[in-house]
């Protein structure tokens, strides 16, 4: 009788676990999509509107540089957001940080939609704009790490790549939503001068609706099981950031460099440079360009999901290496095809470029989570991601504008991106693939050693074989 009674309990438990994993996947997907929607809306508006609306007195060229620099300024505050969220995420939990970062990001974005322009309020308008951008940077610095750990730490070891793809999908899906909203306003609801006068504000104000949706979903998920275990055994690090850099500084640097190329390449499109260049220099229609970028984001999302799944079968490092090779090959053709002035050729270039982006992004959540010990994992993944964002994406659009202004050709931008891609390829090749390693706090001794192929210290033979 006892045996007949146990089976339904096991089935019910298994069903409950799968249901919770689905809730976590939805919470991380919706939350990061909202976060990145907010981020990308700003970047697109910077290239299409803000140079005139907020920086008009300095002239068109310098105004465009400053507008793109305002995109990059937020990246400088990402590490601070990562430090804060990592510290408290390792001490009080992943879920609380997820909810807080969502509210801060969405509130700042909504406020941008209500800002007066320079013509209405003078110098105070760009100052407030920059302060709101800083808040976005603080929020983004803490968002990613929490979402990633909620997804990966809830997942079975053989499905971490797939589970980690859901927070990763937030970036391309956020770009899809942002591009679609901008295209809708520019091409249908507020075409022409109306878009510059008031149409650009609607996508920012729409963020308020998304915040409510994301907040409700994120509040409904359980805390990460790894953090529950850490809290139960009272094994939280007192100062996780200090411990991270004292014991794992080289690992943070390598992890940051892994992300540099993907971030820089991605911000050519998400940071507004490609949209601005295609409209102002090549002469393509603004709405057509926004539609093309929306298409590219869909391809990016598909490639992100498929490569994340592939990393569960073939390993994170191998998939990453292939992704960097595809990205490196696709960089120059993207700009060559764009410069033809044929929108169809732009679509072709974006296709291969987006596949490369997905290949260098899909496995990142699982890769990072398996690199750092449990008690400092939130700090490790958040800070590595934030530093990689600065090295790669912070001022990539600004650098691209400057290079084109100085050289008169996008080949210089291609060379810049290719150099970063080579650096990231070398960096990921220095990481030991630890797919499936036990992420529990009880296995922290193994987690703390051997994440780099150059690190042979204290690695027992049994651990070496597992790695």
UniProtKB/TrEMBL annotation:
The chain crosses the membrane at residues 36-56, 62-85, 97-117, 123-152, 173-192, 198-217, 251-269, 289-307, 319-338, 344-363, 383-407, 413-431. It is a multi-pass membrane protein. Coiled coil: none annotated. Residues 24-436 form the Major facilitator superfamily (MFS) profile domain. The keyword Magnesium does not apply. InterPro entries: MFS (IPR011701), MFS_dom (IPR020846), MFS_trans_sf (IPR036259). This is MFS transporter. It comes from Zhihengliuella salsuginis.
């Amino acid at each position: 009788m006892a045996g007949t009674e146990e089976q339904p309990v096991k089935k019910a438990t298994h069903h409950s676990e799968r249901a919770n994993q689905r809730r976590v996947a939805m919470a991380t997907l919706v939350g990061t999509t909202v976060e990145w929607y907010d981020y990308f809306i700003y970047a697109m508006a910077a290239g299409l509107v803000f140079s005139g609306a907020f920086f008009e007195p300095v002239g068109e060229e310098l105004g465009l540089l400053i507008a793109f620099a305002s995109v990059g300024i937020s990246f400088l505050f990402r590490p601070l957001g990562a430090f804060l969220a990592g510290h408290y995420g390792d001490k009080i939990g992943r879920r609380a940080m997820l909810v807080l970062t969502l509210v801060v990001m969405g509130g700042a974005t909504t406020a941008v939609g209500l800002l007066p322009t320079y013509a209405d309020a003078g110098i105070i308008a760009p100052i407030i704009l920059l302060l709101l951008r800083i808040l976005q940077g603080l929020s983004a610095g803490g968002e990613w790490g929490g979402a990633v750990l909620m997804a990966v730490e809830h997942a079975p070891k053989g499905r971490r790549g797939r589970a980690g793809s859901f927070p990763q999908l937030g970036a391309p899906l956020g770009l899809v939503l942002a591009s679609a909203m901008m295209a809708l306003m520019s091409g249908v609801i507020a075409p022409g001068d109306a878009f510059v006068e008031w149409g650009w504000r609607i996508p920012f104000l729409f963020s308020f609706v998304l915040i409510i949706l994301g907040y409700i979903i994120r509040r409904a998920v359980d805390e990460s099981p790894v953090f529950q275990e850490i809290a139960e055994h009272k094994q939280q690090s007192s100062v996780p950031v200090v411990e991270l850099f004292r014991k794992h500084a080289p690992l943070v640097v390598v992890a940051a460099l892994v992300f540099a190329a993907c971030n820089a390449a991605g911000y050519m499109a998400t940071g507004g440079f490609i949209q601005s260049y295609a409209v102002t220099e090549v002469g393509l229609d603004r709405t057509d360009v926004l539609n093309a970028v929306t298409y590219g984001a869909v391809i990016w999302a598909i490639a992100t999901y498929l490569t994340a799944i592939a990393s569960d079968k073939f390993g994170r490092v191998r998939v990453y290496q292939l992704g960097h090779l595809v990205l490196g090959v696709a960089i120059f053709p993207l700009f060559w095809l764009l410069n033809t002035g044929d929108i169809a050729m732009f679509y072709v270039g974006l296709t291969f470029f987006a596949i490369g982006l997905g290949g260098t992004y899909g496995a990142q959540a699982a890769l990072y989570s398996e690199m750092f010990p449990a008690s400092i994992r939130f700090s490790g993944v958040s800070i590595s991601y934030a530093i990689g964002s600065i090295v790669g994406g912070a001022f990539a659009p600004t650098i691209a504008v400057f290079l084109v202004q100085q050289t008169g050709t996008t080949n210089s931008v291609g060379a810049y991106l290719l150099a970063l891609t080579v650096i990231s390829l070398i960096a990921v090749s220095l990481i030991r693939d630890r797919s499936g390693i036990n992420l529990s706090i009880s296995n922290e001794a193994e987690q703390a050693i051997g994440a780099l192929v150059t690190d042979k210290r204290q690695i027992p033979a049994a651990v070496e074989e597992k790695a």
